[in-house]
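In the previous chapter we treated chains in isolation. Here, by contrast, the input contains two separate entities that must be folded as one system, with a combined length of 339 residues.
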Amino acid sequence: MPLDRMDHLSDDALLAAYAAGDQAAARTLTLRLTPRVFAHAMRLLGDRAEAEDVTQDALMRLWKVAPNWQAGSAKPSTWLFTVTANLCTDRLRRKGRQGVDIDAIPEPEDDAPRAEHVLQEQARIAALESALQSLPDGQRQAVVLRHIEGLGNPEIAEIMDISVRAVESLTARGKRALAAALAEKREALGYDHDG
Amino acid sequence: MTDKRKHKPTPDGPGDLSNPSAQALDVDLDIFFDAARSAQPEPSPELMARVLDDALAMQPPAQPLAARPAPSVPTRSWLGTLLDTLGGWPAAASLATATLAGVWIGISPPDAVSAVTAQLGLAAEAAIALPDGEELITTYLDEG
Protein backbone atom coordinates (compact mmCIF):
# COMPACT_ATOMS: atom_id res chain seq x y z
CA MET A 1 0.00 0.00 0.00
CA PRO A 2 1.37 3.50 -0.78
CA LEU A 3 2.76 5.50 2.13
CA ASP A 4 0.27 8.38 1.78
CA ARG A 5 -2.64 5.96 2.04
CA MET A 6 -1.16 4.57 5.23
CA ASP A 7 -1.03 7.95 6.96
CA HIS A 8 -4.70 7.64 7.83
CA LEU A 9 -4.33 4.26 9.50
CA SER A 10 -4.15 3.93 13.27
CA ASP A 11 -0.97 2.71 14.93
CA ASP A 12 -2.81 -0.51 15.68
CA ALA A 13 -3.72 -1.10 12.05
CA LEU A 14 -0.22 -0.23 10.90
CA LEU A 15 1.29 -2.65 13.36
CA ALA A 16 -0.96 -5.42 12.05
CA ALA A 17 0.07 -4.56 8.49
CA TYR A 18 3.71 -4.57 9.57
CA ALA A 19 3.30 -8.01 11.11
CA ALA A 20 1.76 -9.20 7.83
CA GLY A 21 4.94 -8.19 6.02
CA ASP A 22 3.87 -4.83 4.58
CA GLN A 23 7.05 -2.77 4.13
CA ALA A 24 5.15 0.49 3.66
CA ALA A 25 3.70 -0.02 7.14
CA ALA A 26 7.24 -0.39 8.50
CA ARG A 27 8.22 2.95 6.97
CA THR A 28 5.09 4.77 8.15
CA LEU A 29 5.46 3.47 11.69
CA THR A 30 9.13 4.45 11.74
CA LEU A 31 8.37 7.98 10.54
CA ARG A 32 5.48 8.38 12.94
CA LEU A 33 6.83 6.89 16.15
CA THR A 34 10.59 7.49 16.10
CA PRO A 35 10.41 11.29 16.61
CA ARG A 36 8.04 10.92 19.55
CA VAL A 37 10.12 8.25 21.24
CA PHE A 38 13.33 10.15 20.64
CA ALA A 39 11.93 13.44 21.98
CA HIS A 40 10.68 11.71 25.10
CA ALA A 41 13.97 9.89 25.68
CA MET A 42 15.88 13.10 25.09
CA ARG A 43 13.84 14.93 27.71
CA LEU A 44 14.21 12.17 30.24
CA LEU A 45 17.92 11.61 29.67
CA GLY A 46 19.20 14.98 28.50
CA ASP A 47 21.79 13.23 26.36
CA ARG A 48 21.43 12.87 22.61
CA ALA A 49 23.58 9.77 22.12
CA GLU A 50 21.85 7.92 24.94
CA ALA A 51 18.44 9.03 23.74
CA GLU A 52 19.23 7.63 20.29
CA ASP A 53 20.28 4.29 21.78
CA VAL A 54 17.11 4.11 23.85
CA THR A 55 14.96 5.04 20.85
CA GLN A 56 16.45 2.32 18.70
CA ASP A 57 16.13 -0.19 21.52
CA ALA A 58 12.51 0.71 22.31
CA LEU A 59 11.41 0.47 18.69
CA MET A 60 13.28 -2.78 18.22
CA ARG A 61 11.18 -4.19 21.05
CA LEU A 62 8.05 -3.01 19.26
CA TRP A 63 9.09 -4.76 16.03
CA LYS A 64 9.74 -7.88 18.06
CA VAL A 65 6.31 -8.00 19.70
CA ALA A 66 4.43 -6.92 16.58
CA PRO A 67 3.48 -10.45 15.40
CA ASN A 68 1.87 -11.14 18.78
CA TRP A 69 0.34 -7.68 19.25
CA GLN A 70 -3.30 -7.84 20.28
CA ALA A 71 -5.24 -5.05 18.65
CA GLY A 72 -7.17 -2.95 21.12
CA SER A 73 -5.21 -4.12 24.16
CA ALA A 74 -3.10 -0.95 24.43
CA LYS A 75 -2.08 1.90 22.18
CA PRO A 76 1.32 1.21 20.62
CA SER A 77 2.40 4.76 21.50
CA THR A 78 1.46 4.24 25.17
CA TRP A 79 3.33 0.95 25.18
CA LEU A 80 6.34 2.68 23.63
CA PHE A 81 6.33 5.50 26.18
CA THR A 82 6.33 2.89 28.93
CA VAL A 83 9.23 0.97 27.41
CA THR A 84 11.13 4.19 26.75
CA ALA A 85 10.64 5.40 30.31
CA ASN A 86 11.84 2.07 31.70
CA LEU A 87 14.91 2.07 29.49
CA CYS A 88 15.71 5.65 30.47
CA THR A 89 15.26 4.90 34.16
CA ASP A 90 17.58 1.90 33.90
CA ARG A 91 20.26 4.02 32.27
CA LEU A 92 19.92 6.81 34.80
CA ARG A 93 20.19 4.37 37.68
CA ARG A 94 23.18 2.60 36.17
CA LYS A 95 25.23 5.69 35.75
CA GLY A 96 23.89 7.52 38.80
CA ARG A 97 22.13 10.67 37.77
CA GLN A 98 24.16 13.79 38.15
CA GLY A 99 22.69 17.04 39.32
CA VAL A 100 22.75 19.88 36.87
CA ASP A 101 24.09 23.28 37.75
CA ILE A 102 21.53 25.75 36.49
CA ASP A 103 24.03 28.55 37.00
CA ALA A 104 26.10 27.03 34.23
CA ILE A 105 23.45 27.93 31.66
CA PRO A 106 24.66 30.80 29.49
CA GLU A 107 22.73 34.00 29.75
CA PRO A 108 21.56 36.03 26.73
CA GLU A 109 24.29 38.37 25.54
CA ASP A 110 23.24 39.65 22.13
CA ASP A 111 21.74 43.15 22.10
CA ALA A 112 19.61 42.68 18.99
CA PRO A 113 15.97 42.15 20.09
CA ARG A 114 15.29 39.17 17.80
CA ALA A 115 18.55 37.47 18.57
CA GLU A 116 17.93 38.15 22.21
CA HIS A 117 14.52 36.53 21.99
CA VAL A 118 15.97 33.43 20.30
CA LEU A 119 18.73 33.20 22.84
CA GLN A 120 16.25 33.71 25.63
CA GLU A 121 14.11 30.85 24.32
CA GLN A 122 17.14 28.62 24.06
CA ALA A 123 18.16 29.57 27.58
CA ARG A 124 14.68 28.73 28.86
CA ILE A 125 14.72 25.34 27.17
CA ALA A 126 18.15 24.59 28.55
CA ALA A 127 17.09 25.77 32.00
CA LEU A 128 13.96 23.62 31.91
CA GLU A 129 15.91 20.56 30.77
CA SER A 130 18.43 21.10 33.50
CA ALA A 131 15.73 21.58 36.11
CA LEU A 132 13.94 18.47 34.88
CA GLN A 133 17.09 16.45 35.37
CA SER A 134 17.16 17.53 39.01
CA LEU A 135 13.70 16.04 39.69
CA PRO A 136 13.09 12.51 40.99
CA ASP A 137 12.37 10.10 38.11
CA GLY A 138 8.63 9.82 38.73
CA GLN A 139 8.07 13.57 38.95
CA ARG A 140 10.16 14.26 35.87
CA GLN A 141 8.37 11.64 33.83
CA ALA A 142 4.91 12.81 34.91
CA VAL A 143 5.67 16.47 34.20
CA VAL A 144 7.16 15.73 30.76
CA LEU A 145 4.29 13.49 29.73
CA ARG A 146 1.64 15.92 30.97
CA HIS A 147 3.01 19.32 30.08
CA ILE A 148 5.34 18.71 27.15
CA GLU A 149 4.00 15.59 25.46
CA GLY A 150 0.47 16.77 26.23
CA LEU A 151 -0.93 13.40 27.34
CA GLY A 152 -3.95 13.04 29.59
CA ASN A 153 -3.64 11.85 33.19
CA PRO A 154 -5.33 8.46 32.55
CA GLU A 155 -2.84 7.63 29.79
CA ILE A 156 0.06 8.77 31.94
CA ALA A 157 -1.26 6.59 34.76
CA GLU A 158 -1.25 3.63 32.35
CA ILE A 159 2.26 4.40 31.16
CA MET A 160 3.64 4.77 34.69
CA ASP A 161 1.49 1.99 36.14
CA ILE A 162 0.18 4.17 38.95
CA SER A 163 -3.19 5.70 39.82
CA VAL A 164 -4.49 8.89 38.26
CA ARG A 165 -4.34 10.58 41.68
CA ALA A 166 -0.70 9.59 41.97
CA VAL A 167 -0.07 11.16 38.56
CA GLU A 168 -1.72 14.38 39.71
CA SER A 169 0.34 14.37 42.87
CA LEU A 170 3.62 13.70 41.05
CA THR A 171 2.87 16.40 38.49
CA ALA A 172 2.02 18.98 41.12
CA ARG A 173 5.11 18.25 43.20
CA GLY A 174 7.26 18.15 40.08
CA LYS A 175 6.05 21.56 39.02
CA ARG A 176 6.73 23.00 42.44
CA ALA A 177 10.25 21.62 42.36
CA LEU A 178 10.76 22.96 38.85
CA ALA A 179 9.54 26.40 39.85
CA ALA A 180 11.90 26.40 42.78
CA ALA A 181 14.83 25.32 40.62
CA LEU A 182 14.08 27.95 37.99
CA ALA A 183 13.37 30.77 40.43
CA GLU A 184 17.06 31.50 40.81
CA LYS A 185 17.32 32.27 37.10
CA ARG A 186 14.12 34.30 37.01
CA GLU A 187 15.72 37.59 36.00
CA ALA A 188 18.26 36.16 33.59
CA LEU A 189 15.66 34.10 31.75
CA GLY A 190 13.32 37.05 31.42
CA TYR A 191 10.08 35.28 32.19
CA ASP A 192 8.98 38.03 34.54
CA HIS A 193 8.39 40.17 31.44
CA ASP A 194 6.63 37.63 29.19
CA GLY A 195 4.34 35.83 31.57
CA MET B 1 7.77 0.34 36.02
CA THR B 2 9.55 3.32 37.21
CA ASP B 3 7.41 4.19 40.17
CA LYS B 4 4.88 1.77 41.52
CA ARG B 5 4.36 3.63 44.79
CA LYS B 6 0.80 4.58 45.43
CA HIS B 7 0.94 8.18 46.42
CA LYS B 8 -1.42 9.51 48.98
CA PRO B 9 -2.87 12.94 48.34
CA THR B 10 -0.56 15.47 49.91
CA PRO B 11 -0.76 19.15 50.70
CA ASP B 12 1.36 19.60 47.57
CA GLY B 13 -1.26 17.83 45.48
CA PRO B 14 -3.35 19.27 42.68
CA GLY B 15 -5.83 20.79 45.09
CA ASP B 16 -3.23 23.42 45.90
CA LEU B 17 -3.32 24.69 42.33
CA SER B 18 -6.56 26.47 43.13
CA ASN B 19 -4.81 29.00 45.33
CA PRO B 20 -3.42 32.20 43.75
CA SER B 21 0.24 31.48 44.39
CA ALA B 22 0.04 28.06 42.78
CA GLN B 23 -1.72 29.50 39.74
CA ALA B 24 0.98 32.12 39.39
CA LEU B 25 3.58 29.35 39.54
CA ASP B 26 1.70 27.48 36.81
CA VAL B 27 1.78 30.49 34.48
CA ASP B 28 5.50 30.94 34.97
CA LEU B 29 6.20 27.32 34.06
CA ASP B 30 4.01 27.47 30.98
CA ILE B 31 6.57 29.78 29.37
CA PHE B 32 9.18 27.05 29.75
CA PHE B 33 6.84 24.30 28.62
CA ASP B 34 5.83 26.32 25.55
CA ALA B 35 9.47 26.85 24.67
CA ALA B 36 10.21 23.15 25.11
CA ARG B 37 7.23 22.14 22.94
CA SER B 38 8.24 24.54 20.19
CA ALA B 39 11.73 23.06 20.12
CA GLN B 40 10.99 19.36 19.89
CA PRO B 41 14.27 17.43 19.76
CA GLU B 42 14.45 15.91 16.28
CA PRO B 43 16.00 12.52 15.59
CA SER B 44 18.90 12.52 13.17
CA PRO B 45 18.47 11.01 9.69
CA GLU B 46 21.00 8.37 10.70
CA LEU B 47 18.82 7.29 13.62
CA MET B 48 15.74 7.17 11.38
CA ALA B 49 17.66 5.00 8.93
CA ARG B 50 18.85 2.65 11.68
CA VAL B 51 15.34 2.26 13.07
CA LEU B 52 13.94 1.55 9.62
CA ASP B 53 16.70 -0.98 8.94
CA ASP B 54 15.78 -2.74 12.18
CA ALA B 55 12.08 -2.66 11.28
CA LEU B 56 12.66 -4.24 7.87
CA ALA B 57 15.17 -6.77 9.19
CA MET B 58 12.84 -7.95 11.96
CA GLN B 59 9.68 -7.86 9.87
CA PRO B 60 7.97 -11.19 9.30
CA PRO B 61 8.09 -12.09 5.61
CA ALA B 62 5.00 -11.35 3.59
CA GLN B 63 3.07 -14.48 2.76
CA PRO B 64 3.77 -15.34 -0.89
CA LEU B 65 0.69 -16.04 -2.99
CA ALA B 66 1.74 -19.68 -3.60
CA ALA B 67 1.96 -20.31 0.13
CA ARG B 68 -1.52 -19.11 0.82
CA PRO B 69 -4.10 -21.89 1.00
CA ALA B 70 -6.11 -22.03 -2.20
CA PRO B 71 -9.78 -21.36 -1.72
CA SER B 72 -11.56 -24.69 -1.63
CA VAL B 73 -13.64 -25.37 -4.73
CA PRO B 74 -16.54 -27.73 -4.00
CA THR B 75 -16.46 -30.75 -6.34
CA ARG B 76 -19.70 -31.50 -8.16
CA SER B 77 -20.95 -34.98 -8.98
CA TRP B 78 -22.20 -35.77 -12.50
CA LEU B 79 -25.72 -35.83 -11.08
CA GLY B 80 -25.24 -32.38 -9.56
CA THR B 81 -23.87 -31.05 -12.84
CA LEU B 82 -26.81 -32.55 -14.74
CA LEU B 83 -29.26 -31.06 -12.28
CA ASP B 84 -27.60 -27.64 -12.66
CA THR B 85 -27.89 -27.95 -16.44
CA LEU B 86 -31.57 -28.82 -16.27
CA GLY B 87 -32.35 -26.07 -13.80
CA GLY B 88 -32.33 -27.87 -10.50
CA TRP B 89 -34.48 -30.47 -8.82
CA PRO B 90 -37.89 -28.95 -9.64
CA ALA B 91 -37.12 -28.86 -13.37
CA ALA B 92 -35.74 -32.41 -13.25
CA ALA B 93 -38.86 -33.68 -11.49
CA SER B 94 -41.09 -32.07 -14.11
CA LEU B 95 -39.02 -33.60 -16.89
CA ALA B 96 -39.17 -37.06 -15.29
CA THR B 97 -42.95 -36.80 -14.90
CA ALA B 98 -43.40 -35.82 -18.54
CA THR B 99 -41.14 -38.67 -19.68
CA LEU B 100 -43.02 -41.26 -17.65
CA ALA B 101 -46.33 -39.92 -18.94
CA GLY B 102 -45.06 -40.26 -22.53
CA VAL B 103 -43.91 -43.83 -21.98
CA TRP B 104 -47.19 -44.74 -20.36
CA ILE B 105 -49.21 -43.24 -23.23
CA GLY B 106 -47.03 -45.21 -25.65
CA ILE B 107 -47.61 -48.51 -23.88
CA SER B 108 -51.25 -48.09 -23.13
CA PRO B 109 -52.75 -45.32 -25.20
CA PRO B 110 -56.04 -44.00 -23.90
CA ASP B 111 -59.13 -44.46 -26.11
CA ALA B 112 -59.16 -40.80 -27.03
CA VAL B 113 -55.70 -41.07 -28.59
CA SER B 114 -56.65 -44.24 -30.53
CA ALA B 115 -59.72 -42.53 -31.92
CA VAL B 116 -57.68 -39.58 -33.18
CA THR B 117 -55.09 -41.79 -34.87
CA ALA B 118 -57.86 -43.91 -36.45
CA GLN B 119 -59.47 -40.81 -37.88
CA LEU B 120 -56.13 -39.84 -39.43
CA GLY B 121 -56.08 -43.23 -41.16
CA LEU B 122 -53.12 -44.54 -39.28
CA ALA B 123 -52.93 -47.81 -37.46
CA ALA B 124 -51.82 -47.34 -33.92
CA GLU B 125 -49.14 -49.98 -34.21
CA ALA B 126 -47.78 -48.83 -37.65
CA ALA B 127 -47.97 -45.07 -37.68
CA ILE B 128 -44.52 -44.80 -39.25
CA ALA B 129 -42.93 -47.62 -41.20
CA LEU B 130 -39.17 -47.55 -40.99
CA PRO B 131 -36.89 -49.57 -43.28
CA ASP B 132 -34.67 -52.04 -41.51
CA GLY B 133 -30.95 -51.39 -41.08
CA GLU B 134 -29.66 -53.55 -43.98
CA GLU B 135 -32.04 -51.87 -46.41
CA LEU B 136 -30.82 -48.44 -45.27
CA ILE B 137 -27.16 -49.28 -45.79
CA THR B 138 -27.76 -50.79 -49.25
CA THR B 139 -29.71 -47.72 -50.32
CA TYR B 140 -26.94 -45.43 -49.02
CA LEU B 141 -24.20 -47.39 -50.90
CA ASP B 142 -26.20 -47.52 -54.13
CA GLU B 143 -26.78 -43.79 -54.12
CA GLY B 144 -23.08 -43.17 -53.53
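The CA atoms of residues 41 and 47 of chain A lie 9 Å apart. Chain A has a mean pLDDT of 83. Compare these points with the single-chain example from earlier in the chapter.
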